[in-house]
Amino acid sequence: MIDIGTIKIETERLILRRIEKDDANKMFQNWTSRPKVSRYTRWNVHKTLADTEKYVNYKVNRYGNVPYCYDWVVTLKSSGEPIGEIEAIEIFLMDNAVEVGYCYGDDFWGKGYGTEALKAFISFMFDKVCVDKIFADHISTNPASGRVMQKTGMKFDAVLKGYLIDKNTGKREDKVCYSIDRE
């Protein structure tokens, strides 16, 4: 695995770039303050802009200070509008593998942006970072995330029964796992 860090990635409609302190306001508006978005994430909704500013400062301070940091804000190429984020949320050096996590503002769901960004992430991690395996999971109550994984070539691996708690219902739900290997 090569430690090249977070560098800019361009797709047809998106730019994936490092998070900047100036992104906090749009991140708060577009996804971190939205209960509909955080319902499916492992973080809680941000109640104030200050919550997102603290989060952004944490992310920005990791660049250059944490090895193997791969963490992007996803922006629309046409306007520069931040619409979500994608990152290697876990690095497994011994296994030459990464776990990917992503989220997008609900105003941007259903437009193919998640698929486009995940395809770019997968290509970058295989071609530039030289990982052998990428994996991801989603709560069973969010099948749309699984469809994004499928559209990028990730294959279903397993269902882990009752591994996650749905934040809205408090009920245990299944964790659905996918992965892709370097061809």
Superfamily at the CATH H level of the domain at 9-136? Gcn5-related N-acetyltransferase (GNAT)
Total number of helical segments?
Answer: 5
Looking at CATH, which topology of the domain at 9-136 would you report?
Aminopeptidase
CATH architecture of the domain at 9-136, please?
3-Layer(aba) Sandwich
- Taken as a percent bin, the fraction of beta residues is 25-35%
State the major sheet: 8 strands, mixed
Provide the gyration radius in Å.
16 Å
Give the beta-strand count: 8
Tell me what you see in this structure.
Strand 7 (155-165) and strand 8 form a beta hairpin. It contains five helices and eight strands, in the order ββαααβββαβαββ. The protein has a domain at 9-136: Gcn5-related N-acetyltransferase (GNAT) (Aminopeptidase, 3-Layer(aba) Sandwich). The model has no long low-confidence stretch (mean pLDDT 95). It has 183 residues and is an alpha+beta fold. It has an eight-stranded mixed β-sheet, sandwiched between helices. Helix content is 28%, strand content 32%. Helix 1 crosses helix 3. The protein has helices spanning 24-32, 35-38, 49-62, 113-127, 143-151, and strands at residues 9-10, 14-17, 71-76, 82-92, 97-104, 133-139, 155-165, 172-181.
